[in-house]
Design goal:
InterPro entries: LytTR_DNA-bd_dom (IPR007492). The protein is 51% helix and 16% strand. It has helices at residues 4-18, 20-36, 41-44, 47-75, 83-93, 95-110, 119-149, 206-211, 259-266, and strands spanning 181-187, 190-195, 198-202, 218-222, 225-228, 232-238, 241-246, 251-254.
Length: 269
């Protein structure tokens, strides 16, 4: 199982990777640096070399800054309320490894460490750049970051909106008779199926018909009768006999062994 910290961090990293706004901002800044040639690069490098240099510089520094910025955003989520503040802390911490990374890149292009002869000096120079990077990134993507970092409440669907699986027995009926099941009754070697759209005799044992009811709520009230809960109106006693009165007015007898179950289920109707 992936730890929640790593899972959340990966989600936010994927947000950057998939965002066209992020890549547009990145490309625009690389182009501006390549054209303007800051930090003496316009004097020392031709445009093509300068473009490659700033592309590598920004790819490395942005990778470090994004990684630490997202890590700080996730780790400090329960301590600091504002997303920008969490990201800024991570970006400023990134200045130190970025300073050393800049030294390695400069050495690769020039063979020397130039005037900034240690990583700490480069880190100090990188601090305002890291802050600028954080502001640019937050401005371009704060809505997406907020959507990922804010857990969305899960609202359970109302029970009435969850459709029950259609009982298998309905597939045996003619299309015009396929409605909500009301009751089943034994008729010789047949089972009579009564729905809200009609009734039909099917050549099927009663026991097999009961197995094809699926999740339809109901009760077998007699060895020859089954009734659906939603179509029961009330119970009626006639002497020592008990009947289920259906909503269509039909009375279904309840056998003595099933009286207690019927009273428990429908007694308050």
């Amino acid at each position: 199982m992936i730890h929640p910290f790593f899972s959340s961090t990966l989600r936010e990293l994927q947000l950057f990777i998939r965002s066209w706004r992020f890549w547009t901002t990145f490309a625009l800044i690389v182009f501006i640096f390549a054209v303007s040639g800051p930090y003496g690069t316009s004097e020392r490098m031709m445009f093509g070399v300068r473009l490659g240099y700033w592309l590598i510089v920004h790819a490395v520094t942005w990778t470090i800054a994004i990684g630490l910025s997202v890590t700080a955003e996730v780790l400090l989520r329960n301590r600091l309320r504002h997303t920008l503040a969490r990201m800024m802390i991570g970006s400023l911490v990134a200045a130190l490894p970025i300073g050393f990374a800049l030294g390695v890149i400069d050495f690769a292009f020039s063979g020397a460490w130039n005037e900034m002869n240690n990583g700490l000096q480069r880190a100090l120079v990188a601090l305002p750049l890291c802050a600028l990077f954080c502001l640019l990134t937050y401005t371009a993507m704060h809505r997406q970051i907020a959507e990922v970092s804010t857990p969305q409440p899960v609202t359970p669907a109302p029970a009435a909106s969850i459709p029950l699986a259609e009982p298998e027995i309905l597939s045996r009926l003619k299309p015009q008779n396929r409605g909500s099941l009301a009751r089943l009754s034994v008729q010789d070697h047949y089972t009579e199926v009564v729905t809200t759209r009609g009734r039909e005799l099917i050549l099927l044992r009663f026991a097999d018909a009961l197995r094809e009811l699926g999740t339809t709520p109901g009760l077998q009230v007699h060895r020859s009768h089954w009734v659906a809960d939603q179509h029961v109106e009330k119970l009626r006693r006639d002497g020592g006999k008990l009947f289920v009165v259906m909503k269509d007015g039909v009375e279904v007898p309840i056998s003595r062994p099933n009286m207690d179950a019927a009273k428990a289920r429908f007694g308050d109707l």
